[in-house]
Amino acid sequence: MGNPTPAHHSPDGAARTGTGRAGPDPGAGGAGFIALDGVEKVFEVRRRTGRLRRERHRVRAVDGISFTVARGEMVGYIGPNGAGKSTTIKMLTGILTPSGGSLRVAGIDPSRERTRLARRIGVVFGQRTTLWWDLPLRDSYRLMHRMYRVPDAVFRDNLDRCTELLSLGDLMDVPVRQLSLGQRMRGDIAAALLHDPEVLYLDEPTIGLDVVSKAKVRDFLRELNAERGTTVLLTTHDLTDIEQLCRRVMVIDHGRLMYDGALAGLHEIGESERTLVVDLERELPPIALEGTRTVKVEGPRQWLAFPASASAAPLVAALAQRWPLVDLSVREPDIEAVIAKMYADRSAD
Ligand SMILES: Nc1ncnc2c1ncn2[C@@H]1O[C@H](COP(=O)(O)OP(=O)(O)OP(=O)(O)O)[C@@H](O)[C@H]1O
Description:
By secondary structure, the chain is an alpha/beta fold. The chain folds into three domains: 1-120 and 198-215 and 223-270, P-loop containing nucleotide triphosphate hydrolases (Rossmann fold, 3-Layer(aba) Sandwich), CATH 3.40.50.300; 137-196, no CATH class; 273-332. The protein has helices at 85-93, 114-118, 137-147, 152-165, 181-193, 211-228, 239-245, 263-270, 313-322, 335-348, and strands spanning 34-48, 54-69, 74-78, 100-105, 121-125, 199-203, 231-235, 248-253, 256-261, 273-280, 293-298, 301-307, 325-331. It has a six-stranded mixed sheet, with helices on both faces. Strands 11-12-10-13 form a four-stranded antiparallel sheet, covered by helices on one side. Strands 2-1-4 form a three-stranded antiparallel sheet. α8 (263-270) packs across α10. It starts with 33 loop residues before the first strand and ends with a helix. Adenosine-5'-triphosphate (ATP) is lined by residues 43, 45, 59, 61, 79, 81-87.
């Protein structure tokens, strides 16, 4: 796969208006609450080329990315492994300094004023916890309360809210190491919100979670965004996260922005398909259902592909009515496949 010039599709002008948040915000205007202009990040790495020889090598992790996110927007930031997503998020938090371009979050240059920015942002890295492994959640939160000097009333209010909405009540006195992945993730999300941040970066917040935990996390994020106007930038490999939460999605590959628009537009470009995995009571001939194509039959299980931009609900209803169903699930298209298709189409053009 090459590195074609970045093409910024924006098929339907995805929502760019935020819900807004009270309070003055000098230098961080609505449309450009998060603003990146030609941002680059180059890593110098040493590679072994012989028994004693090392060669310097440059990895262009982020290669000239520009976009803006308005206050209150909830935006998906997706791409294949190694595309540059985490590197972008690390620059947005100030952990990494860009090699080029300019970057502002709430009017602040993250790498120059990391501490000042820290009060206004929250970060959740799904693969890592910010909680203390041996402490119960309650004690982790107490420590954070002191470390980040969160005013008592704000802390109490946020903790009560998160405890209720993320169902943490019964978990407060359990050491983090004994929590399930889904419980720990909910604990981490609460930790990121105790200081009332205006921006929340989420890196794979639903990775490895079961269906029920995923739904809980998604419901919570939706409510947080709607009620508090929290701006959310969400990195995920699960397109259902995007579908249920974000009206706008940005796709990055090889450090470049490939797409910026609605998820439906991405599916159209990628002509991607979702798959209904249908378990029948017995072996039957391939199902013929309008709007789907049976791609595989294995005993009583059948796989039916349908356009990802179409709704699954009427197909599920028709199947349930006309075939003896035992179980049914919807499999999402693979992001890598969608992006590969985008590249292939562009090369063909
Ligand atoms: N500290 C580092 N030193 C050297 N190279 C790095 C460093 N961090 C990231 N990279 C490289 O930069 C590129 C982008 O990595 P990044 O972690 O941002 O990708 P990603 O889109 O988040 O991937 P994933 O979905 O796998 O987490 C990769 O080629 C990676 O190997």
